[in-house]
Amino acid sequence: MLRRTPTLLSKHVNPPTTAPIAGNSKPPIQPFHPSHLLRYVYEPRPDPINCTTLFPTREFATDPSHPLHIRTKRKLAAFDPDNFHWRVQCPVDVSKRAFVRSWAAKRVGKVLRGKIGAALGRRQGDGLVLRGGEGGGGLEGARDAAAAAEREGWIGALLVILTKDKISLTASDAEVRQSVEWLLERVREKQGQEGGRQTQKQRAGHAVKVPSSSRGRNIMVSKAGTSAAPTPPRTAKEIVKTEVGLAPSRPRDR
């Protein structure tokens, strides 16, 4: 059997079999980023029907003939925008099995609840909404939760959405924790921006609160937010003259 003698061009004509083939090379693994796992929708000043409202609740509220219409309307009427409302949603594309989607949502919700539950001073079960007045706290519990939420800055409505990818199921606990921390930082930034806009509106005179000590006085609030000097009260003679001047004149009887 004759052996082929290698030449200078043999390595170019017949490349070695150990070289990687371009078509079968695997793409480089991208480093994990929190946005690969979670998306979110945040409303700093939510309405009763907001991003966290479930679709059946919307249907019940808009259908007067539904048996749960009255109960739903009462629930929406008791909505408190100063509390923190949140919900975790897992798309159907992640898994067709409901219990798998529920497990993925609860895993993220558990970490999220651990981050914000202590700030609100209360913890819920596996319900995806955390707000004051629920869980047997009564009126005092609702006030305490609302005060804690306002003090910590956790107000508004937050909808957390898992991405439509298998990473929603395969992500490690550390990656879930990192994603939740990243998400809450983004929400904090939006809350700070909203607070800055509210402060600018107050300075511009759009929403100026008159102190309780000045109630009952005739105080004019300017657009710049500064109050002018109170007008002195009118005497009885001035009031009578004003009422007489404004009264319509009656025709004389002839």
From TrEMBL:
Protein name stated in the entry: Uncharacterized protein
Region annotated Disordered sits at 1-28, 189-235
